[in-house]
Design brief:
Layout lengths: L1 H27 L2 H11 L4 H26 L2 H28 L5
Helix pairs in contact: 1-3, 2-4, 3-4
Length: 106
């Protein structure tokens, strides 16, 4: 059963990685959205985004999910789920805070 759940989590993480990259590509071509999103990627919120959103949220969770699949470890699966919840919370927090604090100039 752990192999099945780990595979689902790994697939979901790959979908989140694709959507994150797609979101960045779309925002680059919209100047009004780039004003706020540039703060997330390159500005004051960049360390939080790259560490929690990308490194922990996509990188570490994908490695843990693949480890849970290969070793059938329930501990790795539980740790992966907790890490995913933390990363999702931080991503939602960053997007909400940045878009509320930075007002694009008209």
């Amino acid at each position: 059963m752990t192999r099945y759940h780990g595979s689902i989590i790994a697939l979901a993480i790959l979908v989140v990685a694709f959507l994150t990259i797609w979101n960045i590509i779309i925002v680059v071509y919209r100047p009004d959205a780039w004003v706020t999103y540039s703060e997330i990627i390159m500005g004051a919120y960049a360390p939080i985004f790259w560490i929690f959103g990308i490194l922990l949220g996509i990188g570490a969770t994908l490695v843990l999910a693949l480890y849970a699949v290969s070793s059938r470890s329930i501990t790795a699966l539980i740790l992966d789920s907790i890490l995913t919840l933390i990363a999702v919370f931080v991503n939602i927090y960053i997007i909400t805070i940045v878009h509320q604090t930075i007002i694009p100039e008209a």
